[in-house]
Structures are given as structure tokens and as C-alpha cells.
Design goal:
Two copies of one chain form a homodimer. Chain A is built from 14 helices and 17 strands. Chain A is α/β, with parallel strands linked by helices. Chain A has a six-stranded mixed β-sheet with strand order 2-1-3-8-7-6, with helices on both faces. In chain A, strands 14-13-15-16-17 form a five-stranded mixed β-sheet. The radius of gyration of chain A is 26 Å and the shape is globular. At the A-B interface, helix 1, helix 2, strand 2, helix 10 and strand 14 of A face helix 1, helix 2, strand 2, strand 9 and helix 7 of B.
């Protein structure tokens, strides 16, 4: 089984947007045992899209087209499919009803331009959109199935899972490509590469590769086998070996986040958390509350951006700030203690630092961060020093991850709270 | 002048990496007056790459291929070009010397596998790589120039500028494509499409298209002209017309965020802000502090996730929560008032709602949000109702944007704080 992903949009050809939809689809298709042989991106022009659909249909069993299903004149994918299959567009009453219902749920009448979204080539099937106005379309070109999905990632992903994943998996029926990702934090990609060097040799099955993003290292394994069971067995053996070598550097699997893992540990241990953030400005709380159900263990957060806020909200003595500076071990410690007392939580994590791009001094450069962690067992601080040439966003993002990872290690008892030490970025 | 960008790599077809090189090249080519008609991505297989190069050479004046020039066996682009131009690979002494020199600069001997990087098809030209080992290659297929560049973005970009930008600009002979994006919030994409329908007709110059992402609508304009000055003039006239029609729906340009615009307004007016967040859990504070220099106007944030936190931290009466529920106009109002008093800020924005996926009731479904805004002029609340099928992430993200947009309109005096009204998502 082969598939080709086609993305549409002038914004892609002008470089204003990067096509992430094709990568997402490719990952899912590989998991379902389908080889993606090509990605193609074309502009908002029905003739060009039709031509590429027809070419792709010669080479693939599935063609998945994203984008161009909106209500505006630059949305040309419906027309393109009509041209490719040689059937005119006609309004589909079921789709129209669904679009009207979508607007009704929001207490609005359907704007007239949205009516065009109910049109599809005769003989094609509509694919209901559970979270937007644009229905997808499924058509057939010879032996090839062509599926049109919206370009909005959340809608595209939901519709792929709802309408396409099942039929594609069934049709692929057998030779499986299974993938598995372990997610690590606490050392660099090259260090992890060295720890796994012999497993990463080309030609090995499962193949292993690494990726790095804001301090999180993904170790990806992909195994092929004639039967899913054989591939799964291979994958599991290699994953076990990787875990054995990397130990607590591995924090999770798949798309698990550090916040999810920390949340799971807090819930399991029946403990609560509060946060006191300065330079991360609420990002750590945002990460914790990204997880549904986080109200079970997350009590509150304080974003004490101004010094006065640190004093008034967290009882950090103004003299302490004057003496050591807001970015110091002493202030991080006082923030964590004040936060834990005010919130009445089991754990309180604090962060203060210089995210840049300005505000650094020779003594306290951009990238210097102090974390504090107060718990029933005491309080500790840790210093982070990120490369000052990193962007503000990277410094903040990595700081959030490093703070959550420290909490994870403490909850795992792998880090001793009473022995502060410098975490290596 | 037309160009096609081809990227190579199994990691792209497996969805493990997103192709950002084609977007970068497309932006640069547009600036040089070249229309990019397609992006194609193929795997690490010489035959497949050769086939796509040959097809692209039929349709474009320039074909730019990235990736597959490394020293390992999965680097197949050199072979592919040899196959496409019909000339065998041969070692190029100049390139070999440059690779050896590159290693010598690092105090190392060239590892034997790197020698293969000096090979190129007879009749093609090497393109020196100033910051890596892989030379590029320039070849000719009929009227089409094919350039091979490494996949590492920093090397690819440096080599494009050094070897290709000049000749391409010269060949394009001045014809310029300029782009401009206006960013809008407060209505749907179809409504904006209707307001601009006549400007969005195909064939118009500048062309106009829209994109939507989490409630933010991008209106993209791109103008072509024989001279950059002519294109710039056209672009400016259309942008002015779009702004006239959309009014305060337009919040910014390019990649400006609502948080940047709100921050700019607060700074200009010398006002300060504090935030009280429940369901957004710190995301609004994160968005505000994403902006460097936000400490000038942002004082503090409270993430009052638990009801007890709302009472203790923001003085929201427990009886009020018991009577109306935590997600209510009354509680949003009390949160905003309490936040403003505690923080001593000019403005205080509060948010409470049900982000889901669980926690909804028939009366208060997932997606119901109340915003509160306290200011020197009084306090008001607004209700948002997002589609309950949206993801937790989308509901939270759109709520952050809607809150910031309300504050923007108040700061612009375009929204009357004392007349609460339902904001249409």
C-alpha cells in the first residue's frame, strides 16, 4: 500500500506557512502500514491541484489532500476533485444540514458563503467534520481512493481518525511498520546517540533515530515485519534495551509530556502542587493545566513578575531581593517556601531568571535561572545556565521542562531534595 | 520564472521531521521574483529522486533539491542527478581539496567516507560549502537549472545566498513578488471572505487569501510587479483598502501577536495589567510574558485553579461560588475586581470556564467561558461559547486570544466596558 500526501495553499508556496499536516499524516500512515512515497504541495488553483491528484492517483493507492475546503474563493480543492474525477459539483443535502447544525449549535445562522462547503462532485462521499464547517470528501480514481480533508490541523486529524484510519488499516492488512518513541530529558542528543550507538547502525530492524526539541530528546524506533505481531515483538525488545541503558533519562513514551508524567506521579502519590513563576511567566502553570484533570493535584499558581509581587504575594523579604537580586538561589528558595505556605500544597516549585534578550549582566547573564522546590522534606534550589544566544522562547521553554523534570525526579526519589546541584542544560 | 523545490529524506516521508527548507527557499525565491509552483518531497532513493527532478525540469526554470548530500549510504541525491542528466559521477579535485581543508581547519584528517562527497556528475559544477562538508552541485537539464543543496538549514541557506540568489535574481530580471499579512480577530474566516469577496477574485493583483488558526484570521496579500517599487505600491493600496473594510478586526501585521499589540497599547498609555486565570491556567500570562519587555506593564498573574484559591487569593466570596458556580458572570467579575485590588494594576482581566473534555453539564457545557475586565472605569463581563467538540487546547487557546482581543478593544476605546455583551466566537 502506497500513499501520497498533497497539501494545498499559496501560503505554503510563498513560504509563509510550513506544511506540518503532511508530516502528521505520514506518521499515522506509517503506523497503519502504509508507505508514503511522496509529499506534494501546490497552490490554490483548481487546475494545478487536479493535475497533481491525477498524477498521484497513478502511483498510489491512497491520495490524501489537505486544505482548500473553506468557504472563500481561494478554496479550490472541491473544484479540483470535480475536474479530476470528471463529475460536476452538486450540493449535498446531508452536508448542508450538518453545516447549518454546526452554526446552530453556536447560536448563529449559517453565513451564505459557507453554503459552498456542502458541494461535492457527484458520486463522491462527504466526510462529516465533527469540529468545523468544512466536510471532507472521499472519491475514487481508478484503483486509488482520494480523500480531501480540511487544512486546519485539529479538524484534519480528527477526521482522519474518524473516517480514514479504519479503512486504510484494513486495506493495508498485514505488513506492518510500527513505531515507538521514548522521550528523554536531562542530557544532550549526542550523549544519547553515544549511549545507543550500536543500536543505531543502518540496516538494523528496528531502526533507531533521535530528534531534539527544546531539550526534549525523542528516541524513535521503527520496526517492520510481515505481521504486526512480529514487528511489535522486535519493537518491544529494542525499547526495553533502550530504557535499560537510558534509565531515568526516559520520562515517557509517544507524545507524553513532562507535565503529564509529573501529573500522573502527583496523582498516584496523592500529593498537590503550587507554582511560583517569574521569568517563565505562567508557562509552567500552562503546561501543568494543559493536562485534563490537573485540578486533582494543581492548586494554584502565582506569576510574580514584578519584585513587589514577589514580596506581597509570596512573602519574599524586600531586603533579600535587594541583597541577592531577584535572580538568586535565596530568592528562588524564599519564593518556593512562600508559595507552599500560601497555597497549602505538598510541593511548590519556583522559578526566577533572565530570559532575555536584554536584562543580562556579566555576573548574571541572559540564560541564568534559579529553580526552587519546597516539599514536606525541605527546600532546595538549582541553578540552570542556558546558552545566552538562545531565543527568549527557547530559554523559557527549556526552563519549564527542566523544572518539571526536577520535580519528576524528586517524585521518583531519584533526586535528593536536600542536595542542590547544578542541572546540566 | 518558475521554480520547484524538492526535499529528500525518509525522515520527511515518515513524518519524523517537518520540511522547513522548502518554506525558507520559497520565501527567498518570491522575494527574488520567482514563482514557486510546487514543493515535492521524496525518500532517499536515487531512482525516485531522479524521476522527480526530470518531471520538475519539464515545468520549471529552476529546480532546487535539498538533502541527501551527506557521506552515508542513504545520501542518494548525487546519484539521482547523475541519472537525471545522464552523466556518470566523477571525483572533483577542487571539491575534494575543499573538504580536506574543512577537516584540516578543525584539526582532523578527512574520514574516508567523506570522500564520496567530492563526486559529481560530469559537466556539472560544484558549489562550495562555506560551513560544512557537503558541496552543492549545479547542473542543467534542457532550459532548466537544477541546484542541489545540503539539507542542514544553516548550510543550505548560506549556500543559496552565496551561489544562487544572485544568478536567480538576474535571470528573473527584476520582476518582484512582495507579500504582506494582516492579522484579524473577532469574526470568522467566511465573514472576512465576504467582506473582501471582490478583492479576492482570482487573477487580481495583488492576490488576497485568508487562513485561520485558533480564531486568528490571516489576510495575506501578494503583489507582483515588473519593479519592486510598483509591487510595493500595489500592495500598500490594497492593504489600506483591506484595513478600511475590516476596521478594528485587524489587530496587527506580519507575525504580530495579540499579546504584542496589547502590550504596545498598555505601554503607550502608561497602564499596567494583572491577570486572574482559572481554566486558561497561566496561558494568558504566558502569552503576555512571551513578549520581551512585558515587565514594563505586566505586574502579576494569579492562576486560581481551585475554588479555594479563588476565595483566598482573589477574595471571591465562597457563597458567590456556591450560589452561581465557579463558571459564572458573577465569579468572573469578582475575580477581576479582586485581582485588580490585590495587584494595584490599572486593568485586571479574569477568565473562568470549562475547557473540557469533561466537566460540562447541560446548563454549563464544555466551551462555556466567562471573562471579566476591571479597569478605572468599572467592571464588565463577557460570555464566550466555544463549540464543545473543540479540543481542550483549542478552547484554551481561543479563550486566551478572545480575552486579549477584548482588552485590545477596550484600550482602543472601541468596546464599551460598561456594556457587557456576548462575544461571538
Amino acid at each position: 500500500m502506497r500513499a501520497i500526501c498533497i497539501s494545498t495553499g499559496n501560503e505554503l508556496l510563498l513560504g509563509q506557512t510550513v506544511d506540518a499536516n503532511s508530516a502528521w499524516l505520514s506518521r499515522r500512515l506509517a503506523e497503519l502500514g502504509v508507505i508514503v512515497s511522496e509529499h506534494r504541495t501546490v497552490g490554490d488553483e483548481a487546475g494545478a491541484i487536479a493535475r497533481v491528484i491525477l498524477q498521484a492517483a497513478q502511483e498510489a493507492d491512497w491520495v490524501i489532500v489537505t486544505g482548500g475546503l473553506g468557504p472563500t474563493p481561494d478554496d479550490q480543492t472541491r473544484e479540483a476533485l470535480a475536474e479530476a474525477v470528471g463529475s460536476p459539483l452538486a450540493e449535498d443535502p446531508t452536508s448542508l444540514a450538518q453545516i447549518e447544525e454546526y452554526f446552530a449549535r453556536m447560536g448563529r445562522a449559517m453565513p451564505p458563503p459557507n453554503r459552498v462547503q456542502a458541494r461535492l462532485p457527484k458520486g463522491c462521499q462527504p466526510l462529516a467534520n465533527p469540529c468545523g464547517t468544512a466536510p471532507g470528501i472521499l472519491g475514487r480514481l481508478g484503483r486509488c481512493q482520494a480523500a480531501l480533508l480540511p487544512g486546519v490541523p485539529s479538524e484534519m486529524e480528527a477526521m482522519f481518525e474518524q473516517h480514514l484510519a479504519g479503512p486504510i488499516a484494513e486495506a493495508a492488512g498485514g505488513r506492518a511498520i510500527l513505531t515507538h518513541t521514548l522521550r528523554c530529558f536531562g542530557t544532550g542528543e549526542s550523549q544519547i546517540g553515544a549511549m545507543l550507538a550500536d543500536l543505531m547502525q543502518t540496516g538494523r530492524n528496528p531502526a533507531i533515530g533521535t530528534t531534539a526539541s527544546e531539550g526534549v530528546i525523542g528516541v524513535r524506533l521503527w520496526a517492520t515485519g510481515d505481521l504486526p505481531e512480529a514487528a511489535r515483538q522486535l519493537l518491544q525488545e529494542s525499547a526495553t534495551e533502550v530504557r535499560r541503558r537510558l534509565g531515568v533519562l526516559v520520562f515517557g513514551e509517544g507524545d507524553q509530556t513532562l507535565a503529564e508524567v509529573v501529573g500522573g506521579l502527583l496523582r498516584k502519590r496523592g500529593k498537590t502542587l503550587a507554582l511560583a513563576e517569574s521569568c517563565t511567566g505562567g508557562w509552567m502553570a500552562k503546561a501543568i493545566t494543559d493536562v485534563a484533570g490537573s485540578s486533582d493535584y494543581f492548586l494554584r499558581g502565582y506569576v510574580t513578575y514584578a519584585n513587589q509581587a514577589k514580596t506581597e504575594v509570596l512573602d519574599v523579604a524586600a531586603e533579600l531581593i535587594a541583597l541577592h537580586g531577584a535572580v538568586s538561589s535565596e530568592v528562588a528558595e524564599a519564593m518556593a517556601i512562600g508559595c507552599r505556605e500560601r497555597a497549602g500544597s505538598d510541593y511548590a516549585l519556583s522559578v526566577t531568571g533572565i530570559a532575555g534578550p536584554t536584562g543580562g549582566t556579566p555576573d548574571k547573564p541572559v540564560g541564568l535561572i534559579w529553580l526552587g522546590l519546597a516539599s514536606p522534606d525541605g527546600v532546595a534550589t538549582r541553578e540552570l545556565r542556558w546558552n545566552p544566544t538562545l531565543s527568549r522562547e527557547s530559554i523559557r521553554s527549556r526552563t519549564v521542562q527542566a523544572g518539571l523534570n526536577w520535580l519528576r525526579l524528586v517524585l521518583l526519589d531519584a533526586a535528593n531534595l536536600n542536595q542542590p546541584k547544578k542541572v546540566r542544560p
